[in-house]
UniProtKB/TrEMBL annotation:
Residues 22-159 form the DDH domain. This is Phosphoesterase RecJ domain-containing protein. Residues 236-317 form the DHHA1 domain. Gene3D superfamilies: 3.10.310.30, inorganic pyrophosphatase (n-terminal core).
Length: 318
């Protein structure tokens, strides 16, 4: 498959060739695609260029240690390094603070492009995941880049995570092609799938709470507010809270759903999801916006939450 982006692919490959040190970063509040594309790219660069030094930088997210771990890098190292940021729509979302100190920066992302923050930006919403883009990069590298069992496993984990187990509408025939090619490397796919499905007892309790307490309107809009009292009682990381977002969409009558969580400073973060109607524009009005059917947003108080709920509900009554 060729998506007509040969020029940018060749530019990325030639920048990688040039640098002895490559630092790879991804977004905050990591998910399997963020870590999978980051660690997968790092691993495949290490085997493709054994003499280069490759780092993965960002906050640790222990629930994804099964994909791969982070490293620490001296600030000074950045000045001669190529920094590649994967799966991250805007520079405020980057995990790890020194990316801009890099000698050269590259963005590889499948979110709606709202911020071309790097020197070289490859963004394409037609990919299901950043991990799928990394596979594409390898496939178009004229054998300069090589995969192995572990890098294939990381990319597969990212694809399975971002497509909701090949469920969401951005799952294309190319997605299945890539998954099939990755499986040829012989990693233990059922174990990856199991890790993606596993939840801790704490997360199971949150899921039960959400299903018990979610408000479902006749229009097909569902929403819930998780306040600090609940979140602190359950002592959940934000990554753990993220894992329960898809569950509300399993309810057949729900068309659009919003999960609001209170931050420590009493503002709110929202996760908006939809089966069909585009929620991106509403998210963008509230300092968010990632994908057409799946976006984060912010609300400064309860009044803004109500506004978001009204706007989402209006989408369903049009
Ligand atoms: Mn992603």
């Amino acid at each position: 498959m060729n998506k007509g982006n040969e020029a940018i692919i060749q530019q990325i490959l030639s920048e990688i060739e040039k640098y002895q040190t490559v630092i790879i970063q991804r977004h905050r509040d990591a998910d399997p695609d963020a870590i999978g594309s980051q660690v997968g790219l790092a691993q495949l660069l290490r085997i493709s260029y054994p003499h280069k030094t490759i780092y993965t930088v960002g906050e640790e997210e222990p629930i994804f240690d099964w994909i791969g771990k982070m490293q620490s890098v001296e600030e000074l190292t950045y000045s001669n390094a190529l920094v590649i940021v994967v799966d991250t729509p805007s520079c405020e979302r980057i995990s790890g603070s020194h990316y801009f100190l890099g000698a050269q920066t590259i963005k590889i992302d499948h979110h709606v492009n709202m911020d071309s923050f790097a020197d070289l930006n490859w963004t394409d919403e037609s990919f299901s995941s950043a991990s799928e883009m990394i596979y594409y990069l390898v496939a178009h590298s004229k054998n300069h880049l090589k995969l192995d069992k572990n890098s294939a496993r990381c990319l597969y984990a990212g694809i399975v995570g971002d497509t909701g187990r090949f469920l969401y509408d951005d799952t294309s025939s190319y997605t299945f092609f890539v998954a099939s090619k990755l499986l040829e490397y012989g990693f233990d796919a059922p174990t990856v799938n199991r890790f993606e499905e596993d939840m801790s007892p704490k997360v199971a309790k949150l899921m039960a709470y959400v299903l018990q307490n979610v408000t479902i309107l006749d229009s097909g809009l569902a929403y819930i507010i998780l306040n600090q009292q609940i979140l602190q009682k359950m002592t959940l990381s934000s990554g753990e809270v993220d894992t329960i977002i898809p569950v509300v969409g399993k309810i057949a009558t729900v068309k659009i759903w919003a999960i609001f969580r209170e931050n420590e400073n009493h503002t709110y973060h929202a996760n908006l999801r939809s089966k069909k109607m585009v929620v991106y524009d509403i998210a963008k009005k509230h300092h968010g916006g990632d994908h057409p059917l799946s976006s984060g947003a912010d609300a400064k108080n309860k009044a803004e939450i109500e506004q978001i709920i009204e706007e989402l509900n209006a989408l369903l009554s049009d």
